[in-house]
Amino acid sequence: MSATNNFDEEDLWACKCGDGRTIKFSVAKLVEYSGYFSALMNSQMKETRERTLDLRFFSSDTINLVLKVFRYKDKKLCDDKISDIFYESCQLEILEDLLKAIDYLDMPCLYRRCSDLLITILPPFCDEIDRLWKMWTVCETYGLETVEDEICKQIAKNVSVIESKDYFFFREVPRNILSGVLSEPNIDVSSEVGVMKLIYEWILYAKEERLKWFDSLFKCIHIPSLIHSNLPEIGHMVKALGVENIDIMKCYSGYIANPHEYFILRPQHCELRNGKKVLMLFGGVYEHSLMAHNQHARRLWRSAQSIPIMYQDLEEVRRQCLNSNVSNATKTSPNISPRSKIKPIGTGLHLRTINRLKSPMRLLEFGICLFENFVYMAGGQRTNNEEAKSAVKGTYRMDPHLREWWEVAHMIEARCLFTLSSIWGRLYAVGGANEYGILSCTEYYIPREDKWYIGPQLPTQLHEHASCNFREKLYISGGHTNTEHSNQVWVLESKDGTWEPVAPLLESRSYHSMVAMGDKMYVIGGCQKVGDRIRDLHSIEEYNPKSDTWTHLLNLSTPISCTLPVIIGEEVLFIGGYSFDEKEYLQQTVSVDLEKRQWKISPMVIGTSKKVVGYLCLSLSVRPRILR
Asked: What's the rounded mean pLDDT across residues 582-594?
């Protein structure tokens, strides 16, 4: 019995298989991808002269499967047609024979597709543990690391289920599997004490031969995820194993002292253990404390407490804000207040409060950014002063693993209304204002050194501007100089560079936002002076770095000022903000899809009894216990 592929007869070779069948295929098509066939074609062996092959180690079904995998090696497995072709092959025994044939024929290009197929048949391991071990052995034999990683992920997600069904599972598991499971960020344990218990019981099961692996397994303990009450119990287990060179208190203290230095030594711990993606609002004050004509305003400000940090799960933000009222952005809107145009529609964004986690100080007009998922707040004003006389130097870091703020090195200059950006392993504080006037100075902070340094001077005094990281360069735009609103755009191309001008904005603006999406950069909203009044600016401009030009993209029907952009998927979200036309803080969210030129407006409900204003938001990962 024979099977042929669609090639010219002179290209076909006859292959005798172990089940007595003969199949024909073109060896020439395989030469580039197979060490076996390449050597055969360049030899003077009898098989080469007669165009025959003897592959009696394998059945015709296995060889046909090799040819099938080769034919679709570059296709997507999720394609229905491809899935149907491989459906009958998705059995471990068949795939094991396939891997043996691929190894014999020296066709490493097919291992990736085999890995994809194996992942599709991962067993429900809590019921088929023996089968899981067989699959692991196959993966180790042929070096299929991606499948090994998937196995570890599945085990890690079901630790408690496995322990309830098979008490000895984690005591008999091979060390490399245990290490892989314990390294998973989403392991199913309540705390790092649970991770330490797995290590402790695994070593204790065969202590004499396993104790040597303690140091490597202990590195799986996620020090940033520890809380102080965990330390005695972990220390007791370490001591019970007779390990003298590990001091858990010292490890924890070292992390607290300089977490960024710790992450250099253990970069795998940068990712939060069981982290939760949230949107968080920082800083701000209660609006009533800003009332200029209130005779009790000064007393209210002095007595005002720091605002509890507000948050919402990122998935809930997607549901509440990204699928609400949609306006057709191709119908441009004049620059008038959204109160007379489109009002927020729907239930909108409901924010919760974390009463035990507040901003470190009562601040307005501060700078904020993320560095390695740590929140940094710097500068700002402690009181509402139009001349920036209450600008401060203070800098604070929030640890997303713990529920605490840490005061770090202060800035060289006190400043407010500036930008704080994270790039090149540094934080850059650019421009701003203080009691001496508007600033042109720049300074940068190196977190691992906990020290600020003087940076490259701006060519002009500037505050109320916006900044953005784009293609590993730092851009700033707009703002207000000593005398007027600016349309200038400046770029810092490297940490050793100086500020250089690029194409100016089409419209001068300040208090606006700046964001990079794909291969373009955008400025959004803000305000500008019209006559003797400050008016909302509704336009969005798009920057093309290839042509160094700005073009008008669209006009929004709502103002976006005094807020930070948060990128969620393909959209940019803005929380709150201020309307210069209405002279009031806004309680709304605006989601903008820049590619489709659409925006969505939703109301916002905060979890405090009084209206909070002047906050800024970031998207980050935190430990779930912080939110309790």
From this structure: 91
pLDDT grade for 25, boundaries at 50, 70 and 90: confident
User: Dihedral of CA 122/128/131/135: which sign?
Assistant: positive
Among 102, 121, 140, the domain boundary falls at 121
Domain boundary among 65, 97, 121: 121
Q: What is the pLDDT of residue 325?
A: 42
Residue 174 resides in a domain = no
CATH number of the domain where residue 93 is located: 3.30.710.10
Q: Which of 203, 167, 222, 616 is nearest to 402 (CA)?
A: 222
> Is the pTM value of this prediction over 0.85?
no
- According to the 3-state scheme, what is the secondary structure of 211-277? HHHHHHHHCCCCHHHCCHHHHHHHHHHHHHCCCCCCCHHHHHHHHHHCHHHHHHHCHHHCCCCCCEE
Q: Which amino acid is at 190?
A: S
How many structural domains compose the chain?
A: 2
**Rounded to an integer, what distance in angstroms lies between the CA atom of residue 394 and that of residue 408?**
8
pLDDT at 350 over 70: yes
In a domain, 286, yes or no: yes
Give the domain range for residue 544.
276-627
Q: Report pLDDT for 415.
A: 96
